[in-house]
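Render this sequence as a predicted structure.
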Amino acid sequence: MATTPAPFLSLLTTTPIYIPLFASLLLIAAFALFRPRRSKASSTPPRSVSPSPADKKPLLPVQRRNSLVSLLSNVIPGARRSPPATPSAEVPVTNRTPAEIAAYGNFPDYATLSGVPLPKAYPELDIAKALPRPYRPFRWAYHQTMSFKKMEPDWWLELENTYIARIAQRKALHALHGPKILQSLPGSESATKELMEMCLQFYCSRYPQYFSLTPSSSPTVFTNRILGKEFILSEYPPLEILLNNVPEDFAITLRNPQTGDYEFRAGVICSSLGWNVETKIGMNLRQIHDPIPDYKEKMSMSMDRFFTKMPTSAPIQRGSWGLEYLQPLYMPPNDPHMEHRSIQNPDLELKDVFIRVDWQTLRRLPLSGAIVFNFKAIFTPLEEVRDEPGVPAVILEVLEKGKKSLMDYKSTWHVEHVAKPALRSWKEEQVEKGLVEGDWQVETLKDYPLFDGWEEKWHRRQGF
């Protein structure tokens, strides 16, 4: 039985007058599609620290197709078109071959490839005085979520005055513990190189007074003026370059093409508590987070979906926190420092109680499709929050009313006999001084994960 053509097609096939009209429309459409376009401003970020101008084979990620237009617009003005795809339109690519990735060469323009701009230069930073931003990721009412926020591109990797000491500490930990600190499984080679290059590009763009890449040399040389060293990059595995220069931890997860799960395949981690690289390498997300209360019931499925869809242009940040006796950076299973968590020492002094914030970012790499956890431990004396509006009250509320399983996981009990009375006193003091309204209902601060007046205090402590 013959099908009836759609009304518009029926007009075209039965009414001769519409045939030349249809042909004219086709000509107009073709002219509009293929005519030369007037040049527009390029969407390519203004800064590039790629160490070589060598041509790169244009095997761009599918989710950043328009990046090709941006890259070409520097050479072919008529090729400029629409801006890069929005995150909702991106489709993550995770099956690119090592050969396809290698075709980009060394240090391609990751800002354009990912959609995340290079950071603005920060020449005011003095490494002898620099402090991390005072993150206070305390929440109330407390609900077990990942509490993500959009990552600020300028603050992906922060420098602080502990840089030299922390690099030395991390190298010593690696020398002592080896694969418990640093490992990479087969198949992660492209991702580790990509991550290393992105970190060095960031450093050179953000802190040009301290770091540079020599573009014309072969092999490429990375100069670290804080340490007074030069690194010929081809002589070191990528994760060792990070260990020697970037005092932050990285865990690289890659999608298993058979199961679809994201698995921990490579990392350099020097600040873990109760675990290490060796105990987690090769695990998927559910296995890695198994010890976390309520993860399986409340977060596992949503995290799996999030990883599947996460675009390269939308990195995120979050923070977790705890209270510690002194400043334990690396505490693997059965570490002697663990014994302090089982007692409440009656001689414990307030000056020895620290807030530990693990500030974390999560981003997808544009070529390998890997998703990278990046985190660093920041220690702050508990006494530091005394004049920070609302902060003592929120911490106290969590300690006194937090869900038992979550508080057991945080392991704050060993210092609470000293911390709680101090926090209670500071909470009352802030009301008396007018820093907090007397009838204020304790809740997550409006400036979360910071606090009201943080920037002035932060600048003052650095001598600005």
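Summary. Strands lie at 149-150, 182-184, 211-214, 221-224, 229-232, 249-255, 262-268, 316-325, 353-364, 371-381. The chain has a mean pLDDT of 84.
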